User: Which sequence fits this backbone?
């Protein structure tokens, strides 16, 4: 259920290092591009788990057979930070349907955090493979609420969660509360959260780094 790509050395290390590095973070375009490239690599790796069917192809000189994926995909991104990974997944899964949903954290006076889910645009999810993308999995609570909200559009056959960096507490939480047909694909897992539920060492606020500060 859990796939941590940092356990195997690859070119992914470069992109992961740059999104964490405070020097490279000064370039929003590069930050967004690196998250896009991370999601492309994750997309390639997770595509190996799809169901494939031999398909006959007519070329100019004859016929050949290619194994093509049968999964009907819906890529859902959590606004706004998730947009950075959405394009990377769509680059590889260009026939996928698309969904968008907003989720944001509100810090209360008692230092507790409340997650709000508001905007949603989503096709039917019945008998489909749902991929939810978000660069950071801090507590995992936002991901859980987003999935529960998307279920209003039907229950998918499979759920795939894609993130650049996750905390170990978020992984533990999602493995406990999400359905059995869930797989989690991350580029790296960090050990802890601080008092404000930010991942440590993490990288900061992915949405702000990609698109600028919000009010």
Assistant:
């Amino acid at each position: 259920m859990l796939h941590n790509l940092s356990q195997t050395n690859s070119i992914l290390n470069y992109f992961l290092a740059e999104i964490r590095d405070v020097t490279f973070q000064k370039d929003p375009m590069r930050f967004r591009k690196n998250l896009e490239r991370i999601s492309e690599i994750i997309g390639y790796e997770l595509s190996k788990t799809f169901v494939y069917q031999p398909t006959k192809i007519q070329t100019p000189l004859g016929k050949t057979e290619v194994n093509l994926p049968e999964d009907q995909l819906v890529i859902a991104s959590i606004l706004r930070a998730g947009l950075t990974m959405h394009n990377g997944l769509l680059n590889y899964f260009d026939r996928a349907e698309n969904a968008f949903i907003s989720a944001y954290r509100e810090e209360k006076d008692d230092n507790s955090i409340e997650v709000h889910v508001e905007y949603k645009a989503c096709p039917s999810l019945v008998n489909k493979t749902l991929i939810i993308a978000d660069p950071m999995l801090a507590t995992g609570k936002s991901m859980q609420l987003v999935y529960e909200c998307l279920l209003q559009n039907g229950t998918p056959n499979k759920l795939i969660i894609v993130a650049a960096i996750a905390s170990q507490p978020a992984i533990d939480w999602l493995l406990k509360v999400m359905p059995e047909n869930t797989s989690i694909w991350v580029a790296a897992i960090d050990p802890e959260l601080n008092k404000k539920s930010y991942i440590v060492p993490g990288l900061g606020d992915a949405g702000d780094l990609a698109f600028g500060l919000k009010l």
Summary: The chain has six helices and twelve strands. The domain at 2-46+75-207 is CATH 3.40.50.2020 (Rossmann fold). The helical segments are 12-20, 28-46, 83-92, 141-150, 168-177, 206-211. The first strand starts at residue 2 and ends at 4.
